[in-house]
Amino acid sequence: VESDFAKSLAAEETAEDDAAAEYEQISQENRVTKTLKEQDVKYKTAEAKSLDKAISELTSDRDTADSELSAVLDYYSKIKERCIAKPETYEQRAARREAEI
């Protein structure tokens, strides 16, 4: 009976040591995983902030470019009216010829 008890005790101690070693290994893996994920969150948060800043800057640049474009197009339309000769319609030409005659 004592030898069975000793065998059982040895088997239980071995199983307990194996379980403790496995627990320590899993705990270490979990700590490493947690650290990696925390760093990943940190870097992705920083990247998101930089992207948000870039978006706001580019949006501002686009708004400025849009306002400049509209100003240039307005100016162009005013210049175009003054500088580009418009062809006369047939009625205008006919009226002008009749006035000359």
Order of helices and strands: HH
Counted beta strands: 0
Largest sheet, described in full? none
Count of discrete alpha- or pi-helical segments spanning 4 or more residues: 2
Which of globular, elongated, flat, extended, rod-shaped describes the shape?
Answer: rod-shaped
Stretches where pLDDT is under 50 for at least 5 consecutive residues are none
Which whole number gives the mean pLDDT? 93
The N- to C-terminal Cα distance equals: 143 Å
* Range of strand content: under 5%
How many whole angstroms does the radius of gyration measure?
43 Å
Helix-and-strand structural type: mainly alpha
Q: Helical proportion? A: over 70%
Description:
The protein is mainly α. It contains 2 helices and no strands.
In short:
With 101 residues, this protein is mainly α. It contains 2 helices and no strands.
